[in-house]
Amino acid sequence: MSKKRNVKAEESERQSRKEVLRARRQSEQSRQIRIVIAIVLGIILLVFGVALVNEYLLVPNQPVANVRGEEIALGDWQDRVRYQRAQFIINMEDQLESFGDVGLVQQFNGQQIQLLQDGQELGRLVLEQMVDETIIRQEAAKRNITVSSAEIDAAIGEQFSYYGGEAPTPLPTPTQTIMPTPSLTPIPTAVITEALPTQTPLPTPTVGPTGTPLPTATPVSSESFQESLDALLGRYRKVGVSEATFRSAVEAQLYREKLAEALGEEQGVATEEEQASAYFLIFDTQEEADATLAQIGVDGFLTVWNTVRSASFDANRESTASANEQLWRPREQYESNLGADVAAAIFDEPINTPSGVIEVPGAAEGDPSQFIITMASGREIRPVAETTISNAKFQLVSDLITTVRNTETVELLSLWRTRVPGQPILDPKFLVQPTPVPTEVIPTPEPLPTDDGT
Questions:
Q1: I need a surface site. Which of 153, 213, 355, 365 has the fewest CB within 10 A?
Q2: Same-domain status, 39 and 125
Q3: How confident is the model over 238-258, as pLDDT tens digits?
Q4: DSSP for 307-329?
């Protein structure tokens, strides 16, 4: 019995050792599996982490353009694209709220709608604009031009008619326009401040400023301004545009304006120029113009001009003559509207001396020529219009940008093409074709019967 118990004990001990070994093996296998799983998860997390770091830290800092050694970062460009998209969309939503007509908004914003649908083109335009802004900042730095945070605040305030509690700088009072009264007596050549154009336009006229005073901006309170600004910034934040991006766009415009002023001083943009006033007789045929020129030799230019100007309208008259007057225009404007020959007659010939017959080709190919007899009534040095001076200064900025682009390293890289933001998205209601207005069909009345019954 003792021997059997010993055998059983040994078998039990061996079985226990097997179970222990088996348990150890299973434990080791489980441990190895856990290690493998942990390694795999670690690798996956590492890959995701690297991807996140690359996408949100490294890629946004990669350059999309190089401007004379200064890089434009992808993230900054994407922010500006989103801002431009948001600006287009907010403007259209405001117009729809004001007009209540999607079709009218579409007419006003056709180009903006097309750009919102063509992300590549909008992205390229924004990048080109940022390149220009970088050049402007670089040129401003050379001239010690800076833009402070206070100046940005003031510029934003002006967008909302807020001037820090003060009244806005008054605009120059426009000169009242005067309509010369037709008369058979000679019109004196004294200086007239301004005149309205006649009903018969000169060939290819350039629309100029009218004498209608511009509306005076009504200053708003600080509370009203802050409320309006917060509302606008809230709309931007909803579509992923930060206040910093909004302010950077305002800052860029201030740099452009300051550089324009500096270039204007450097290059001496003219504030005065020679201007002339002149009378015009305009004809559709060479024969009538020649006959009128002969009549001028007998009666004098002013008498003939007044006769034509005073003639009552008659649709059946054979004459094509019309009389017109332009007051205080520079040579360039006469050249642009009427050609160099007419401008030379006005500025180079003695005052009150009629020109010969001058042929002016039609504005477009195939348009008939007109024939003009002109006479300068006055010439003097006069102030250049503020809008003309401003345009000249900004043209200097554009010329400088063109020079830098053509002569120095300005490179657009290709990274941006695959990373153009598509947000915010334009509401589909702005893409729906407007419903055409139904045309009322008026029935044709039946003819009345005649006396014979037919």
A1: 365
A2: no
A3: 999 999 999 999 999 999 999
A4: HHHHPPP-TT-S---EEEEEEEE
pLDDT bin (cut points 50, 70, 90) of residue 107 is very high
pLDDT confidence tier of residue 51, bands split at 50, 70 and 90: confident
122 and 261 in one domain? Answer: yes
- Domain range for residue 142? 73-167+219-269+389-425
Amino acid at 404: V
CB 396 within 8 A of CB 264: yes
DSSP alpha helix (H) spans, 100-200: 102-108, 110-117, 119-142, 149-159
The CA distance from 415 to 72, in Å, is 11
Under DSSP, the state recorded for 68 is: T
CB count in 10 Å sphere of residue 48: 10
Q: State whether 259 and 399 are in the same domain.
A: yes
What is the pLDDT at residue 394? 97
The pTM score is 0.72
Residue 187's SS3 state is coil
Query: Hey, is 376 helix, strand or coil?
Result: strand
